[in-house]
Amino acid sequence: MSAREVRAVGLEALMLATELLQRARRADSQAGLWEAADVQWWWQTPRRSDEVEKLFWVDDEGPVAGVLLTSWTDDAWQCDPVLVPGASGLEPGDVWRRAIEHAAKHSANGFDVPVGDDDRIFRELAQRSGFTAGHHDGTAGAAPRGVSALRPGARPRGRDHRSPDRRTLGIDRLVTRGAQRVKVSYETDAAAALYQGVGFLPTSTTTWYRALSE
Q: What is the architecture of the domain spanning 4-130?
């Protein structure tokens, strides 16, 4: 099944990114870094990247690959090459190359590419591209029954026992509303201990690779 390249901006790009990430999750529930909800959340804040063309490759079933660009500030851009696991007709190296070329056109001061440490292909492509490995973060997940209900006065097991974190209280609300799966990301050992203390299990780690402008 061949895929054609399309370009989109604004709301159209958001919808294509949402479909792409949902399709990737259906193909492999554990693969990839982002959920569709992540890009929906990012969209709530107006950004320079909103009006920048995003690249997508679409087959008869919808988007099968894409290049997501997000500007957190004028100087801090993020590039996410996304390819549906097991997709045919597109090579990861080709998607990576187009992603890097596209990001370099819009971020004069360089950009970051998050790569899952278990993603051997993109990790090798980042290293071969001469990118510098930067900070790391982690992801943990749990089924609702595996997450302890944190209410005021509860004390999670971990390094910080002062009070329940607002994020864990938010997780409790998701669970009570029927969430089937909960996923969190964290950057510090303290946050990892907090989440693991209420039942989350580490699922992946990510390295953020930095591409400097030429």
A: 3-Layer(aba) Sandwich (3.40)
